[in-house]
């Protein structure tokens, strides 16, 4: 019974964190684009992936 409650708690926290996890690639892309403007090909590749 305790293990099931633990799994439910894990699932609830995971589903609560899901929007942040989905937003993370875009955030990293935006942060990575800032200082490294010269590396255009890598960023266009990232844009294609995300």
TrEMBL record:
Protein origin, superkingdom: Bacteria
Protein name: Uncharacterized protein
Record organism: Paraburkholderia piptadeniae
